[in-house]
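As a warm-up, study this chain.
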Amino acid sequence: QVRLVESGGGLVQAGGSLRLSCAASGSIFSIDAIGWYRQAPGKQRDMIAAIINGGHTNYADSVKGRFTISRDNAKNTVYLQMDSLKPEDTAVYYCNAVLTITTDVGNSQRNYWGQGTQVTVSS
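Now compare it with the structure written out below.
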């Protein structure tokens, strides 16, 4: 059973830092792309950071210079280091991955979502 399991959300003061983790588990052949989305109340879910198989990263303009995405391939884990947090960063943060999984009929590329973790930044 393939899952994305997140941790690290919580409450932090403006200017502070948090690190989110997302571990992919299950019969995974490869992580083709993995990243983070966030959704604030009343707003759409937006991609904020992603990293692809070759190591390329991209960030939403709103978090460039403050957030850093990284991965530990041996652990099938992606991290989001969030520094200089602002109240407008308050949102539910979701891990998303494009995974090639192993099935009984061969490999299959699929998109998975984590359960979401709340990040709240106080003024």
